[in-house]
Amino acid sequence: MVKVTLKSTYTVKPIESTPIHRLDLSEIDQAKAWTHSPTVYFYRPNGQPNFFSAETVKTALSQALVQFYPLAGRIEKDKEGRLELNCNEKGALFVEAKSDSDIDDLGDFAPTSELRGLVPYVDYNETHISEWPLVLVQITSFRCGGICLGLGISHIVADGAAAMLFVTSWAQIARTGSNVIGPKLMPFIDRTVLRARVRKDAAEKTTKFDHIEYKRPPVLVSQVDETEELKKETTVAVLKLSQYQVESLKRRANEGTMDEREYTRYETLAGHMWKCASEARGLVDEQETKVHVSVDCRRRLRPALPANYFGNATFPTTPVAKAGDLISKPLSYAASKIREGVRRMTDEYVRSAVDFLGSQRDWSQFRTSFHSIDDKAKLGAYYGCPNLAITSWIGLPLYTADFGWGQPFHMGPTSLGADGKAYVISTEDDGIIVYLRLQTEHMEKFKELFYEDL
């Protein structure tokens, strides 16, 4: 068991004065889980003096918060209960800690409570949302000389691409000693570009599609709701695929397909996981199952959002299929259903989704993927058995967090909130790592099917 001892706690504020105002949050911001997305970056000692100086990292954070000043604010609610961002310079939480263990004692970095202890804790049950810092940082020094940078960023404020924009900018400032960042790293903060065209009931007139992604996921045919499934024990697994295994799986998915474009790594992996989960769970043929897929829509909108748009621009799409078809048909079928869902996310569809959200009075029903396994994980849509929620970090610049002492040798999530939650991450050698939480009774069968013939 890795034990962590806290040494000191600081509040880091922008090093210069920043705009004080209230920032309107978009409809898709409103529908995100209001927990922090917890991640960890691990670094091995490189022999340099003053290796991974916490003071250097902390100073760079205060400089980065000048350009990324919304992250120094707090989330509040207006009179109608709508979330808004109060840019008030209250700052980020910065913690220094130490451990008498070695980094290698953490094994394969499975997202468990042990790993979660490397990111500052927030009591979401006993404190008000307006009290939560939007950025949580913890620097933990290990006996072996290695370092873990634990980071939590409020999902209300930033999606994965926006979070990586901030981390890359912050690391560059620490590495170069200059607070000047180029235009590509300068955050685009205006959220009005993703606002509903009209509000509340009137928005229904501009909602052109049946937005299945915001409807409740299927439950087991033998049950009336997910109450019994929520009671069941779950476990996590770290599943690794080499580049050769990924390519082998892609060849399998593309055998006999009539599509003019090959299935991508993500379409293949997500389809494979969906197929394996349906069989491992023993779902009956007629059981409907839904998979929650997040699609970055920055480049799908017309006009496209800037690549440096700082906010949430990932929208859900939720392919649905019958378990019998997923299990009996080739992998190409499951991959095609994933592609079908992603292709649906056109400018017209996304704008309609924004208008649909704008017509709602209660966004809590749409929030899912809370980053904890406490009671908050039971809020919103449940994507456990018979469903899945597969988040892709493929293509994100996960290893650009060089603060001056080299790139991290590992970056990954620390938490998988509930049954059915998964992250798919690419490695530097073009392999894939899958982090997955399933009910304990289903995990071994899933792993057997996942690696079959690979």
TrEMBL record:
PANTHER family documented for this protein: SPERMIDINE HYDROXYCINNAMOYL TRANSFERASE (PTHR31642:SF324), TRICHOTHECENE 3-O-ACETYLTRANSFERASE (PTHR31642)
Domain of life: Eukaryota
Organism: Nelumbo nucifera (Sacred lotus)
UniProt record similarity statement: Belongs to the plant acyltransferase family.
Pfam families: Transferase (PF02458)
Keywords associated with the record: Acyltransferase, Transferase
Keyword Acyltransferase in annotation: yes
Protein name: Shikimate O-hydroxycinnamoyltransferase-like
Gene Ontology MF annotations: acyltransferase activity
